[in-house]
Amino acid sequence: MDAARLRLVGGAGPRPDDRQARVDAVLTRYFSVARRRAEPLGAEYVRLWERLEANTIGGKRFRPRMVLAAYESLGGTELDSGACVGAAFELLHTALIVHDDVIDHDFVRRGVPNISGSYRDAARAAGAPEPVAEHRGMSASVIAGDLALMGAYRLIDRSGVDGATRSRLLDVMDEALFASAAGELIDVDFAWLPDAPAVDDIVHMERLKTAVYSFECPLQAGAILAGAPDETVRTLGDFGRDMGIAYQLVDDLLGVFGREEETGKSASGDLREGKRTVLIAYASEKEGWDEVAPLFGSADLDDAGADRLRTHLVACGARGFAEGLARYYANRALARLLEPHIPPALRTELHPIADAVLARRA
Fold this sequence. Notes:
By secondary structure, this protein is mostly helical. Helix content is about 75%, strand content about 0%. It has one domain (about 5-360): Farnesyl Diphosphate Synthase (Orthogonal Bundle). The termini are close together.
């Protein structure tokens, strides 16, 4: 994807601050307390908490950034509370990706063993048969994901905000998890359908699975925490929905056309897995798909076959369509910020997010 061609005109880049450091400090304290609690319950439990903590390190902190961008731009000053709510959404993200790896039967993330992989490898080294080793890995991941979900709610509960605000924040967190679970179930069902879903169905799934918990709800949480009017909270949800869809569309493009050294995952993985995306939904309706369809979702897909699929996705217009759709949703998101109740400081804060989403190269 041509970053210059997709870049939107917006405000200046994010001002230097210590937002990530504050969120990291909250997570460090949370895991430190958890490890101390785990010590009387056994060394293996402590190690599980250590591996769970490792899964929170190295991410982009998109969700805490959304919380704090809205909170501070709308006048929030209790930075410790903001960081605590931001960290809660990071733990929600951790829980969902840990469970997602179980659903996808993945043992690697960002090029290194994930929780499932590390526990599977340890069982292998101890002489366990492969099915037993894999079961141990998956079981540990389910437990770890459950603990991260508990932590997300616990951090909001311990954020120090008043009862009414805390109740609203918990409702937002609940909506994030509720919608994401629905999206995940739809995605699971898509995997075994014989025909590719329609483009609109894919977009609906991606909104539920990713946009709600990554953009919509974190932005709304920051606004609620800052005491913003309901109309501002609603508009930020609209912005987050559209920007989150654009984000996932770009992510799908990167999953097929991205460079492995930048994305951290194989550019053939989504094609080999048979992942249903807007690219595939569009291509399946175009002439020539029947000729390459047997390659899609094949466990034996090699580099030559993946290149053939990529060539077809470009030639039939699927890549251009997905890029255009991402631009459409990003521009629609930015249009939401023109509402008169959105203060200039918030517009300045959120414009670069669109740039960051669309400038990811594919």
